[in-house]
Fold this sequence. Notes:
- The structure is a single chain.
- This protein is mainly α and 82 residues long.
- The protein has one domain: Arc Repressor Mutant, subunit A (Orthogonal Bundle), CATH 1.10.10.
- Helix content is 56%, strand content 7%.
- The chain contains 5 helices and 2 strands.
- It has helices at residues 3-11, 16-23, 27-35, 52-62, 72-80; strands at 42-44, 47-49.
- The longest helix has 11 residues, at 52-62.
Amino acid sequence: MTQSAQLDIDSTLWTATDVASYLKVSRSWVYHRAESGELPYVRIGALLRFQPSAIRVYAEQSATPAPRARSLTASIHALGKR
């Protein structure tokens, strides 16, 4: 992808449908989170639009890390403390 094509993609505002597709959630989830202030948006008249870069940051900050696997030694040690 060329640099100018990347700028065009990043400068285009997303709709709630675009955000829902990106985050793999429903459109109503997007609207509820936007109206509650949890999800950043731009209001244009009665429409809500979203900055792709802000949605990416939101997704990265909201991600929950996977739990770390316990080693066998730590598991045995934890069982011994019971």
